[in-house]
Specification:
- The structure is a single chain.
- By secondary structure, this protein is α/β, with parallel strands linked by helices.
- The chain has one domain: Maf protein, CATH 3.90.950.
- It contains five helices and seven strands.
- A seven-stranded mixed sheet has the order 2-1-3-4-5-6-7.
- It is globular and about 50 Å long.
Length: about 200
């Protein structure tokens, strides 16, 4: 069954990745015509995903709208960077600055304390006004030296032990089989195939 979904993001790398993940489904992923999103003031990934989805949902009430929030969680660092993953280094944060700050925080972690996970939470607003959540996680560990040039965000310092590589060293195909975002968006697509 064919379906259409508006995606509440302005991140072109995320959009490319999501379109690649969903390519086996008969779906159209659209970006909303919006200059800016409201600030992500939630304390959880669920709250932030719902803030984005609700904002776009009010603009397109007859459509399915997905808001997504994702980040990196290092339990030994009290869950940092967590919901602040994209803004970890402050107002002028970028991938490089965020990685640099996390490497500073994690430099004294012992081997067993380097476990971490990426999480992706999707809030789906349905035409009925109801909402539901989908979640995916990818477990791995933080390394001290960035490696690889694929991906974005913290990918260069997040190692998947069973691959012996960082996420940034994986091919797009490999990443989209195992990523937190792939897991969450595949659940969403399977739900929409049944729902529409």
């Amino acid at each position: 069954m064919s379906f259409k979904i508006f995606l509440a993001t302005k991140n072109p790398a995320k959009l490319r990745e999501i379109k690649e993940i969903l390519k086996k489904f008969d779906c159209t992923v659209l970006l909303p015509d919006v200059a800016d999103f409201p600030p992500e003031t939630g304390q959880t990934f669920q709250e932030n995903a719902l803030i984005k989805a609700s904002f776009v949902g009010r603009m397109y009430p007859q459509h399915y709208v997905a808001g997504e929030d994702s980040g990196l969680v290092v339990p030994a660092l009290n869950g940092m960077p967590g919901v602040l993953s994209a803004r970890f280094a402050g107002p002028d944060a970028n991938d490089g600055k965020n990685i640099e700050k996390l490497l500073q925080y994690s430099k004294n972690l012992k081997d067993g304390e380097r476990e971490a996970y990426f999480i992706c939470v999707i809030a789906l607003i349905e035409p009925s006004g109801n909402h539901r959540f989908f979640e995916g996680r990818l477990y791995g560990r933080i390394v001290q030296e960035p490696s690889g040039s694929n991906g974005f965000g913290y990918d260069p310092i997040f190692e998947i032990p069973e691959y012996g590589k960082t996420v940034a060293q994986l091919s797009v195909e490999e990443k989209n089989k195992i990523s937190h975002r792939a897991k969450a968006f595949l659940q969403l697509a399977e739900y929409l195939e049944m729902a529409v």
